[in-house]
Structure formats: C-alpha cells, structure tokens
Amino acid sequence: MDRIDRAGRVIAASPAAVYGALLDRQALEAWMPPEGMRGRVERWDPRPGGGFRMILTYLDAADSPGKTSDATDVVDVEFADLVPAERVVQRAVFEADDPAYEGTMTMTWHLVPAGDGTEVTVTAVDVPPGIDQADHEAGITSSLANLASYLERAD
C-alpha cells in the first residue's frame, strides 16, 4: 500500500514569510511541535544536504509514549530540497529501538500563493508503519495551526 499522509491550510502570510519560518531555528522550535509537545533543536544547518535534529517532548507522556523514550521523540531531518518561497523537502529518521519506526520518511512542504496568503500543503511518504496515519495527519494539522498563529501574530 502506498500511503500518503497529508494536511493543508491557508496561512495569512506571504510564501516568503512561510518559507522563512520553515528555515529559522527559533521559529521551528516555536511552531513545529504539535499540540501536547514542546521541541528543541540540537543541531541546525539550513541548506540542501544540511538539516537539524529535533527533540520533541510530550507534556504528558502517560497518554502518548514516545518513540525514542517514554517522553520523547528524537528525529534527524535532512533538507533534501529547498526552493525559496515554493517548497521544502525534508527526509526524517526517528531515533527508536522499535523496528516499526525504522525508515526514512519524506515530508514535502508546498507553498502556493493564495490571495493575500499562502496555501501550505504537507505530504508525507514512506511513513514508518508504527506511526498511525490519523494521528500523524492530526499532528501535521496541529503544526500548521501553530505555524499560522506564529506568522499571523508576527505581522
């Protein structure tokens, strides 16, 4: 089965502003963690072939045990392709002992002008089978809502 997880949202910010928030370390820490999590970037190299390592910590690990430890998900992300104000392609690998989380997931952030804002569509392929599709899409939707709040507040 060729699974594609996706979510989208129109954000009241220019494609350049959205692209900037995808490639700014402090911005990413602020908006990327979905509801119920906080994030910290350990390594940062925003160029094609570069990437980042993010530690995502569950605020309540009792309801959502992590992939890396009881309370955390650690993900290493490579920037596979960067097209200013149009697209960011990330290759993500979770640090986990469970083979259900093995593999490299590719997430593509598409940015398309939409009136005074930007339609942001995120697609994920090669998602590890241990990640539930509905939960993953809800997480992406939550991150997009955070991104919208972050950028719309900045204007």
Commentary on this structure:
- It is a single chain.
- With 155 residues, the chain is of the alpha+beta class.
- It has a domain of 105 residues: 2-Layer Sandwich (Alpha-D-Glucose-1,6-Bisphosphate, Chain A, domain 4).
- The chain is built from three helices and seven strands.
- The longest helix is centred in the C-terminal third of the chain and has 22 residues.
- The chain is globular.
Taking Cα atoms only, what radius of gyration do you get, to the nearest Å?
15 Å
Mean pLDDT reading:
92
CATH-defined superfamily of the domain at 4-33 and 80-154: START domain
Largest sheet: 7 strands, antiparallel
User: What are the secondary-structure elements, in order, as H or E?
Assistant: EHHEEEEEEH
Main sheet: strand order: 1-7-6-5-4-3-2
In terms of DSSP E residues, the strand content is 35-45%
Low-pLDDT stretches: none
CATH level 1 name of the domain at 4-33 and 80-154: Alpha Beta
Number of E strands: 7
Query: What is the general shape?
Result: globular
- Please tally the helical runs, counting DSSP H or I stretches of 4 or more residues: 3
Output the CATH topology of the domain at 4-33 and 80-154: Alpha-D-Glucose-1,6-Bisphosphate, Chain A, domain 4
- Output the structural class: alpha+beta
Distance between the termini: 42 Å
CATH architecture descriptor name of the domain at 4-33 and 80-154 = 2-Layer Sandwich
Helical amount: 10-25%
